[in-house]
Amino acid sequence: MSLKTTTEVELVDHSPKPAVLIERIDIIDIVRGVALLGILILNIPYFSMEEYFTEPWSQDTSNPNFWVHAVNIIFFEGKMRALFSMVFGAGIVLFTSNKEKAGKSATWLFYKRMIWLTLFGLAHAHLILWIGDILYFYGLIGMLAFLFRKMKPKYLVMGVPIVAIIGFIANTLFMQKIRGEYLEYKVAIESQEAGNELSDKELAAIAAWEETRKEMIPNKEEVVENTAYMKGSYADVAGHIRPKAWDGQTKYLIFSIWDMLALMLLGIALYRWGFLTMKWTQAQYIKTIWIGYGIGLPLVIFSFVYNTIHFPNVEAGLKYIENHSIMWVNLIYDFQRILIMMAHVALVILLYQKGYFTRLMNGLRAVGQLAFTNYIMHSVICTLVFFGYGLNKYAEWEYYQLYYLVLGIWIFQLIISPIWLKHFLFGPLEWMWRCLTYGRLQPFVRK
Fold it and tell me: 112: closest CA among 441, 439, 444, 429?
Protein backbone atom coordinates (compact mmCIF):
# COMPACT_ATOMS: atom_id res chain seq x y z
CA MET A 1 0.00 0.00 0.00
CA SER A 2 1.41 3.36 -1.02
CA LEU A 3 2.02 5.76 1.82
CA LYS A 4 0.27 8.53 -0.04
CA THR A 5 -2.24 7.99 -2.79
CA THR A 6 -3.87 10.61 -4.92
CA THR A 7 -7.45 10.14 -5.99
CA GLU A 8 -7.70 13.34 -7.98
CA VAL A 9 -4.87 15.51 -9.29
CA GLU A 10 -5.28 19.26 -9.54
CA LEU A 11 -4.95 20.58 -13.07
CA VAL A 12 -2.39 23.33 -13.58
CA ASP A 13 -4.22 26.65 -13.71
CA HIS A 14 -2.43 29.97 -13.28
CA SER A 15 -5.63 32.03 -13.29
CA PRO A 16 -7.45 33.01 -10.08
CA LYS A 17 -10.22 30.60 -11.00
CA PRO A 18 -10.33 27.18 -9.31
CA ALA A 19 -9.02 24.16 -11.13
CA VAL A 20 -11.49 21.51 -12.20
CA LEU A 21 -10.07 18.82 -9.91
CA ILE A 22 -8.35 19.00 -6.57
CA GLU A 23 -5.56 16.94 -5.08
CA ARG A 24 -6.83 14.65 -2.35
CA ILE A 25 -4.95 12.57 0.17
CA ASP A 26 -6.82 9.31 0.60
CA ILE A 27 -5.96 8.70 4.24
CA ILE A 28 -7.29 12.12 5.29
CA ASP A 29 -10.57 11.38 3.51
CA ILE A 30 -10.66 7.97 5.23
CA VAL A 31 -10.09 9.51 8.67
CA ARG A 32 -12.73 12.14 7.93
CA GLY A 33 -15.10 9.33 6.95
CA VAL A 34 -14.46 7.56 10.27
CA ALA A 35 -15.14 10.80 12.14
CA LEU A 36 -18.31 11.51 10.15
CA LEU A 37 -19.82 8.08 10.78
CA GLY A 38 -18.63 8.10 14.39
CA ILE A 39 -20.28 11.44 15.15
CA LEU A 40 -23.68 9.89 14.45
CA ILE A 41 -23.14 7.52 17.40
CA LEU A 42 -23.16 10.49 19.77
CA ASN A 43 -25.66 12.67 17.92
CA ILE A 44 -28.52 10.24 17.48
CA PRO A 45 -29.73 10.24 21.13
CA TYR A 46 -30.22 14.01 20.89
CA PHE A 47 -32.41 13.58 17.84
CA SER A 48 -34.49 10.90 19.47
CA MET A 49 -34.48 10.84 23.29
CA GLU A 50 -36.12 13.02 25.91
CA GLU A 51 -34.11 14.82 28.59
CA TYR A 52 -32.56 12.61 31.29
CA PHE A 53 -33.01 9.52 29.15
CA THR A 54 -30.08 7.77 30.90
CA GLU A 55 -31.51 8.10 34.43
CA PRO A 56 -33.65 4.91 34.48
CA TRP A 57 -30.63 2.69 33.71
CA SER A 58 -27.59 4.87 34.51
CA GLN A 59 -26.47 2.48 37.29
CA ASP A 60 -28.23 -0.70 36.13
CA THR A 61 -25.47 -2.98 34.86
CA SER A 62 -28.05 -5.64 33.90
CA ASN A 63 -29.56 -3.31 31.30
CA PRO A 64 -28.13 -3.44 27.73
CA ASN A 65 -28.59 0.32 27.49
CA PHE A 66 -25.98 0.76 30.23
CA TRP A 67 -23.31 -1.17 28.35
CA VAL A 68 -24.03 0.41 24.97
CA HIS A 69 -23.75 3.79 26.67
CA ALA A 70 -20.53 2.75 28.41
CA VAL A 71 -18.92 1.72 25.10
CA ASN A 72 -20.03 4.99 23.51
CA ILE A 73 -18.60 7.10 26.33
CA ILE A 74 -15.31 5.21 26.54
CA PHE A 75 -14.49 4.86 22.85
CA PHE A 76 -16.45 7.54 20.99
CA GLU A 77 -17.81 10.39 23.12
CA GLY A 78 -15.70 13.48 22.46
CA LYS A 79 -13.23 11.48 20.37
CA MET A 80 -15.21 11.66 17.12
CA ARG A 81 -15.85 15.38 17.51
CA ALA A 82 -12.15 15.83 18.30
CA LEU A 83 -11.25 13.81 15.22
CA PHE A 84 -13.56 15.84 13.00
CA SER A 85 -12.13 19.12 14.34
CA MET A 86 -8.57 17.87 13.88
CA VAL A 87 -9.19 16.91 10.25
CA PHE A 88 -10.89 20.27 9.70
CA GLY A 89 -7.69 21.95 10.90
CA ALA A 90 -5.63 19.88 8.46
CA GLY A 91 -8.10 20.91 5.76
CA ILE A 92 -7.23 24.56 6.36
CA VAL A 93 -3.63 23.84 5.31
CA LEU A 94 -4.75 21.66 2.40
CA PHE A 95 -7.02 24.40 1.08
CA THR A 96 -4.49 27.21 1.32
CA SER A 97 -1.03 25.70 0.81
CA ASN A 98 -1.10 25.05 -2.96
CA LYS A 99 -2.52 28.49 -3.65
CA GLU A 100 0.06 30.19 -1.45
CA LYS A 101 2.91 28.16 -2.97
CA ALA A 102 1.82 29.46 -6.37
CA GLY A 103 2.12 33.01 -5.04
CA LYS A 104 -1.63 33.59 -4.72
CA SER A 105 -3.37 34.91 -1.64
CA ALA A 106 -5.85 32.42 -0.22
CA THR A 107 -7.11 34.69 2.56
CA TRP A 108 -10.23 36.18 1.01
CA LEU A 109 -11.14 32.90 -0.69
CA PHE A 110 -10.82 31.03 2.61
CA TYR A 111 -12.86 33.60 4.51
CA LYS A 112 -15.59 33.45 1.87
CA ARG A 113 -15.57 29.68 2.32
CA MET A 114 -15.95 30.02 6.08
CA ILE A 115 -18.67 32.67 5.80
CA TRP A 116 -20.71 30.34 3.61
CA LEU A 117 -20.07 27.46 6.03
CA THR A 118 -21.36 29.62 8.88
CA LEU A 119 -24.52 30.38 6.90
CA PHE A 120 -24.97 26.70 6.10
CA GLY A 121 -24.69 26.04 9.83
CA LEU A 122 -27.42 28.54 10.60
CA ALA A 123 -29.68 26.89 8.02
CA HIS A 124 -28.84 23.46 9.43
CA ALA A 125 -29.82 24.52 12.95
CA HIS A 126 -32.83 26.68 12.18
CA LEU A 127 -34.36 25.09 9.08
CA ILE A 128 -33.42 21.41 9.35
CA LEU A 129 -33.68 21.86 13.14
CA TRP A 130 -30.57 20.09 14.38
CA ILE A 131 -29.67 21.64 17.72
CA GLY A 132 -26.21 20.04 17.68
CA ASP A 133 -24.98 21.68 14.45
CA ILE A 134 -21.20 22.17 14.25
CA LEU A 135 -20.92 23.87 10.83
CA TYR A 136 -21.70 27.29 12.28
CA PHE A 137 -18.94 26.94 14.87
CA TYR A 138 -16.46 25.53 12.37
CA GLY A 139 -17.07 28.48 10.09
CA LEU A 140 -16.41 31.03 12.82
CA ILE A 141 -13.59 29.21 14.60
CA GLY A 142 -12.00 28.21 11.30
CA MET A 143 -11.47 31.92 10.59
CA LEU A 144 -9.54 32.16 13.85
CA ALA A 145 -7.54 28.95 13.32
CA PHE A 146 -6.54 30.23 9.84
CA LEU A 147 -4.41 32.91 11.51
CA PHE A 148 -2.18 30.22 13.07
CA ARG A 149 -1.73 28.02 9.99
CA LYS A 150 1.94 29.04 9.46
CA MET A 151 3.00 28.78 13.08
CA LYS A 152 5.59 26.11 13.86
CA PRO A 153 3.92 22.80 14.76
CA LYS A 154 5.64 22.59 18.15
CA TYR A 155 4.03 25.88 19.18
CA LEU A 156 0.64 24.79 17.88
CA VAL A 157 0.86 21.59 19.94
CA MET A 158 1.99 23.57 23.00
CA GLY A 159 -1.11 25.68 22.53
CA VAL A 160 -3.41 22.66 22.84
CA PRO A 161 -3.06 22.16 26.64
CA ILE A 162 -3.04 25.93 27.13
CA VAL A 163 -6.31 26.32 25.22
CA ALA A 164 -7.74 23.24 26.99
CA ILE A 165 -6.93 24.78 30.39
CA ILE A 166 -8.50 28.08 29.30
CA GLY A 167 -11.59 26.12 28.31
CA PHE A 168 -11.61 24.36 31.69
CA ILE A 169 -11.33 27.71 33.49
CA ALA A 170 -14.12 29.21 31.36
CA ASN A 171 -16.42 26.27 32.07
CA THR A 172 -15.48 26.31 35.76
CA LEU A 173 -16.39 30.00 36.00
CA PHE A 174 -19.69 29.23 34.29
CA MET A 175 -20.38 26.42 36.75
CA GLN A 176 -19.39 28.71 39.63
CA LYS A 177 -22.05 31.15 38.46
CA ILE A 178 -24.68 28.42 38.39
CA ARG A 179 -23.52 27.09 41.75
CA GLY A 180 -23.72 30.57 43.27
CA GLU A 181 -27.26 31.02 41.99
CA TYR A 182 -28.25 27.62 43.36
CA LEU A 183 -26.78 28.25 46.81
CA GLU A 184 -28.48 31.67 47.06
CA TYR A 185 -31.73 30.03 45.97
CA LYS A 186 -31.37 27.36 48.67
CA VAL A 187 -30.84 30.01 51.35
CA ALA A 188 -33.91 31.91 50.17
CA ILE A 189 -36.08 28.79 50.12
CA GLU A 190 -34.93 27.78 53.62
CA SER A 191 -35.86 31.26 54.84
CA GLN A 192 -39.26 31.00 53.15
CA GLU A 193 -39.92 27.57 54.66
CA ALA A 194 -39.03 28.99 58.07
CA GLY A 195 -41.92 31.42 57.64
CA ASN A 196 -39.81 34.54 57.10
CA GLU A 197 -40.82 37.32 54.76
CA LEU A 198 -38.46 37.27 51.79
CA SER A 199 -36.32 40.28 51.01
CA ASP A 200 -35.98 41.70 47.51
CA LYS A 201 -32.56 40.05 47.27
CA GLU A 202 -34.01 36.65 48.19
CA LEU A 203 -36.88 37.04 45.73
CA ALA A 204 -34.36 37.94 43.04
CA ALA A 205 -32.30 34.85 43.94
CA ILE A 206 -35.32 32.59 43.53
CA ALA A 207 -36.21 34.20 40.19
CA ALA A 208 -32.62 33.95 38.90
CA TRP A 209 -32.34 30.27 39.76
CA GLU A 210 -35.76 29.49 38.31
CA GLU A 211 -34.71 31.06 35.01
CA THR A 212 -31.44 29.09 34.94
CA ARG A 213 -33.17 25.88 36.02
CA LYS A 214 -35.84 26.15 33.37
CA GLU A 215 -33.24 26.70 30.67
CA MET A 216 -30.77 24.00 31.73
CA ILE A 217 -32.46 21.64 34.18
CA PRO A 218 -36.12 21.23 33.23
CA ASN A 219 -38.35 19.49 35.76
CA LYS A 220 -40.39 16.39 34.95
CA GLU A 221 -43.44 18.36 33.88
CA GLU A 222 -41.31 20.47 31.53
CA VAL A 223 -39.69 17.32 30.11
CA VAL A 224 -43.18 16.06 29.23
CA GLU A 225 -43.98 19.41 27.59
CA ASN A 226 -40.71 19.41 25.65
CA THR A 227 -41.35 15.86 24.45
CA ALA A 228 -44.78 16.94 23.23
CA TYR A 229 -43.17 19.77 21.26
CA MET A 230 -40.75 17.35 19.61
CA LYS A 231 -43.64 15.06 18.67
CA GLY A 232 -45.64 17.95 17.24
CA SER A 233 -45.72 19.80 13.93
CA TYR A 234 -42.73 21.42 12.24
CA ALA A 235 -43.75 24.72 13.88
CA ASP A 236 -43.86 23.04 17.32
CA VAL A 237 -40.41 21.51 16.90
CA ALA A 238 -38.96 24.73 15.49
CA GLY A 239 -40.40 26.77 18.33
CA HIS A 240 -38.66 24.47 20.81
CA ILE A 241 -35.35 24.00 18.98
CA ARG A 242 -34.58 27.43 17.54
CA PRO A 243 -34.25 29.43 20.80
CA LYS A 244 -31.94 26.78 22.26
CA ALA A 245 -29.86 26.63 19.08
CA TRP A 246 -29.59 30.41 18.97
CA ASP A 247 -28.49 30.59 22.60
CA GLY A 248 -25.76 28.06 21.82
CA GLN A 249 -24.63 30.08 18.81
CA THR A 250 -24.59 33.42 20.63
CA LYS A 251 -24.87 33.43 24.42
CA TYR A 252 -22.71 30.34 24.92
CA LEU A 253 -20.41 30.75 21.92
CA ILE A 254 -17.47 31.68 24.14
CA PHE A 255 -17.57 28.20 25.71
CA SER A 256 -17.45 26.43 22.33
CA ILE A 257 -14.42 28.27 20.93
CA TRP A 258 -11.65 26.72 23.01
CA ASP A 259 -12.27 23.05 22.40
CA MET A 260 -12.62 23.33 18.62
CA LEU A 261 -9.79 25.84 18.24
CA ALA A 262 -7.35 23.63 20.18
CA LEU A 263 -8.18 20.61 18.06
CA MET A 264 -7.96 22.52 14.78
CA LEU A 265 -4.51 23.74 15.80
CA LEU A 266 -3.58 20.15 16.63
CA GLY A 267 -4.77 19.08 13.19
CA ILE A 268 -2.61 21.72 11.50
CA ALA A 269 0.42 20.56 13.51
CA LEU A 270 -0.15 16.86 12.84
CA TYR A 271 -0.60 17.49 9.13
CA ARG A 272 2.60 19.50 8.91
CA TRP A 273 4.47 16.90 11.00
CA GLY A 274 3.39 14.18 8.56
CA PHE A 275 1.29 12.20 11.05
CA LEU A 276 -1.84 12.61 8.91
CA THR A 277 -0.02 11.96 5.63
CA MET A 278 1.56 8.66 6.71
CA LYS A 279 5.12 9.99 6.82
CA TRP A 280 5.71 8.42 10.20
CA THR A 281 7.11 4.91 10.46
CA GLN A 282 4.85 2.02 11.36
CA ALA A 283 6.77 1.71 14.63
CA GLN A 284 5.81 5.30 15.48
CA TYR A 285 2.14 4.64 14.75
CA ILE A 286 2.24 1.48 16.87
CA LYS A 287 3.82 3.46 19.71
CA THR A 288 1.05 6.08 19.38
CA ILE A 289 -1.56 3.32 19.67
CA TRP A 290 0.04 1.87 22.82
CA ILE A 291 0.41 5.27 24.48
CA GLY A 292 -3.01 6.52 23.43
CA TYR A 293 -4.97 3.50 24.58
CA GLY A 294 -2.60 2.62 27.42
CA ILE A 295 -3.07 5.99 29.14
CA GLY A 296 -6.35 7.19 27.67
CA LEU A 297 -8.49 4.12 28.38
CA PRO A 298 -7.72 3.93 32.13
CA LEU A 299 -8.42 7.67 32.41
CA VAL A 300 -11.76 7.54 30.60
CA ILE A 301 -12.85 4.38 32.44
CA PHE A 302 -12.07 6.06 35.78
CA SER A 303 -14.00 9.14 34.67
CA PHE A 304 -16.97 7.04 33.51
CA VAL A 305 -17.13 5.11 36.78
CA TYR A 306 -16.76 8.31 38.82
CA ASN A 307 -19.57 10.04 36.91
CA THR A 308 -21.78 6.94 37.10
CA ILE A 309 -21.42 6.88 40.88
CA HIS A 310 -21.75 10.61 41.54
CA PHE A 311 -24.16 11.76 38.81
CA PRO A 312 -26.87 9.11 38.34
CA ASN A 313 -29.59 11.79 38.17
CA VAL A 314 -30.21 15.54 38.36
CA GLU A 315 -30.73 15.56 42.11
CA ALA A 316 -27.37 13.91 42.70
CA GLY A 317 -25.71 16.37 40.35
CA LEU A 318 -27.15 19.34 42.22
CA LYS A 319 -26.09 17.85 45.53
CA TYR A 320 -22.58 17.41 44.17
CA ILE A 321 -22.18 21.01 42.96
CA GLU A 322 -23.62 22.19 46.27
CA ASN A 323 -20.70 20.54 48.06
CA HIS A 324 -17.93 20.97 45.44
CA SER A 325 -16.88 24.32 44.04
CA ILE A 326 -14.70 22.85 41.26
CA MET A 327 -15.19 19.61 39.34
CA TRP A 328 -11.55 18.57 39.05
CA VAL A 329 -12.46 15.29 37.38
CA ASN A 330 -13.34 17.31 34.27
CA LEU A 331 -9.63 17.94 33.74
CA ILE A 332 -9.36 14.31 32.65
CA TYR A 333 -11.73 14.83 29.76
CA ASP A 334 -9.56 16.64 27.23
CA PHE A 335 -6.48 14.56 27.92
CA GLN A 336 -8.17 11.16 27.61
CA ARG A 337 -10.14 12.10 24.49
CA ILE A 338 -7.07 13.40 22.64
CA LEU A 339 -5.02 10.35 23.63
CA ILE A 340 -7.71 7.93 22.46
CA MET A 341 -8.46 9.95 19.34
CA MET A 342 -4.76 9.84 18.38
CA ALA A 343 -4.74 6.08 18.95
CA HIS A 344 -7.86 5.70 16.79
CA VAL A 345 -6.20 7.61 13.93
CA ALA A 346 -2.92 5.70 14.25
CA LEU A 347 -4.85 2.41 14.18
CA VAL A 348 -6.76 3.41 11.02
CA ILE A 349 -3.52 4.52 9.33
CA LEU A 350 -1.77 1.27 10.28
CA LEU A 351 -4.62 -0.85 8.94
CA TYR A 352 -4.59 1.17 5.73
CA GLN A 353 -0.84 0.84 5.32
CA LYS A 354 -1.04 -2.92 5.74
CA GLY A 355 -3.78 -3.16 3.11
CA TYR A 356 -6.47 -4.51 5.44
CA PHE A 357 -10.21 -3.94 4.87
CA THR A 358 -9.68 -2.51 1.38
CA ARG A 359 -13.37 -2.30 0.47
CA LEU A 360 -14.21 -0.67 3.80
CA MET A 361 -11.37 1.82 3.36
CA ASN A 362 -12.65 2.72 -0.11
CA GLY A 363 -16.10 3.26 1.32
CA LEU A 364 -14.76 5.40 4.16
CA ARG A 365 -12.70 7.45 1.70
CA ALA A 366 -15.83 8.21 -0.32
CA VAL A 367 -17.87 8.98 2.83
CA GLY A 368 -15.15 11.40 3.93
CA GLN A 369 -14.96 13.02 0.52
CA LEU A 370 -18.72 13.65 0.75
CA ALA A 371 -18.61 14.54 4.46
CA PHE A 372 -20.67 17.73 4.14
CA THR A 373 -23.47 16.03 2.23
CA ASN A 374 -23.40 12.94 4.44
CA TYR A 375 -23.43 15.04 7.62
CA ILE A 376 -26.55 16.90 6.52
CA MET A 377 -28.05 13.59 5.38
CA HIS A 378 -27.75 12.32 8.98
CA SER A 379 -29.88 15.23 10.15
CA VAL A 380 -32.48 14.87 7.40
CA ILE A 381 -32.90 11.13 8.05
CA CYS A 382 -33.01 11.45 11.84
CA THR A 383 -35.41 14.38 11.93
CA LEU A 384 -37.78 12.59 9.56
CA VAL A 385 -37.62 9.40 11.61
CA PHE A 386 -37.95 10.90 15.09
CA PHE A 387 -39.64 14.30 14.94
CA GLY A 388 -43.39 14.70 15.01
CA TYR A 389 -43.69 15.91 11.41
CA GLY A 390 -41.95 12.70 10.26
CA LEU A 391 -42.45 9.17 11.60
CA ASN A 392 -42.83 10.55 15.14
CA LYS A 393 -40.57 8.02 16.89
CA TYR A 394 -39.22 10.56 19.38
CA ALA A 395 -38.92 9.09 22.92
CA GLU A 396 -40.30 5.74 21.72
CA TRP A 397 -37.16 3.61 21.18
CA GLU A 398 -34.83 2.09 23.70
CA TYR A 399 -31.37 3.63 23.67
CA TYR A 400 -29.69 0.52 22.28
CA GLN A 401 -32.27 0.31 19.48
CA LEU A 402 -31.06 3.62 18.06
CA TYR A 403 -27.92 1.89 16.87
CA TYR A 404 -29.81 -0.33 14.46
CA LEU A 405 -30.65 2.87 12.59
CA VAL A 406 -27.05 4.09 12.94
CA LEU A 407 -25.82 0.85 11.39
CA GLY A 408 -28.35 1.18 8.58
CA ILE A 409 -27.22 4.73 7.80
CA TRP A 410 -23.58 3.67 7.86
CA ILE A 411 -24.17 0.83 5.41
CA PHE A 412 -26.18 3.08 3.11
CA GLN A 413 -23.55 5.82 3.04
CA LEU A 414 -20.65 3.38 2.65
CA ILE A 415 -22.39 1.89 -0.40
CA ILE A 416 -23.89 4.99 -2.02
CA SER A 417 -20.92 7.36 -1.59
CA PRO A 418 -18.49 5.43 -3.86
CA ILE A 419 -21.25 4.97 -6.43
CA TRP A 420 -21.97 8.70 -6.40
CA LEU A 421 -18.31 9.58 -6.93
CA LYS A 422 -18.13 7.34 -9.98
CA HIS A 423 -20.51 9.75 -11.70
CA PHE A 424 -19.91 13.10 -10.00
CA LEU A 425 -16.84 15.08 -8.98
CA PHE A 426 -18.36 16.32 -5.70
CA GLY A 427 -21.29 15.74 -3.40
CA PRO A 428 -24.21 18.08 -4.07
CA LEU A 429 -23.53 20.25 -1.02
CA GLU A 430 -19.77 20.20 -1.59
CA TRP A 431 -20.41 21.37 -5.14
CA MET A 432 -22.76 24.14 -4.00
CA TRP A 433 -20.25 25.29 -1.35
CA ARG A 434 -17.49 25.33 -3.96
CA CYS A 435 -19.60 27.34 -6.41
CA LEU A 436 -20.46 29.90 -3.74
CA THR A 437 -16.83 30.15 -2.61
CA TYR A 438 -15.42 30.76 -6.08
CA GLY A 439 -18.39 32.78 -7.31
CA ARG A 440 -19.00 30.73 -10.45
CA LEU A 441 -20.50 27.40 -11.46
CA GLN A 442 -18.11 24.52 -11.11
CA PRO A 443 -17.97 21.26 -13.09
CA PHE A 444 -20.10 18.63 -11.40
CA VAL A 445 -20.52 15.57 -13.63
CA ARG A 446 -17.48 13.35 -13.95
CA LYS A 447 -16.47 12.89 -17.60
Answer: 439
Query: Rounded CA gap, 245 and 132, in Å?
Result: 8
- How far apart CA 374 and CA 420 sit, in angstroms, is 12
* Cα distance between residue 217 and residue 209, in whole Å: 10
**Per-position pLDDT tens, the chain of length 447:** 444 444 443 333 333 444 444 457 899 999 999 999 999 999 999 999 999 999 999 999 999 999 999 999 999 999 999 999 999 999 999 888 877 776 677 889 999 999 999 999 999 999 999 999 999 999 999 999 999 998 999 888 887 788 778 878 888 888 888 888 888 888 888 888 888 888 888 888 888 888 888 888 888 899 999 999 999 999 999 999 999 999 999 988 888 888 899 999 999 999 999 999 999 999 999 999 999 999 999 999 999 999 999 989 888 888 888 888 888 888 888 889 999 999 999 999 999 999 999 999 999 999 999 999 999 999 999 999 999 999 999 999 999 999 999 999 999 999 999 999 999 999 999 999 999 999 999 999 998
Q: CA 296, 360, 377, 379: dihedral to nearest 10 degrees? A: -30
Cα-to-chain-centroid distance, residue 254: 16
Residue 262 to residue 265: CA distance in whole angstroms: 5
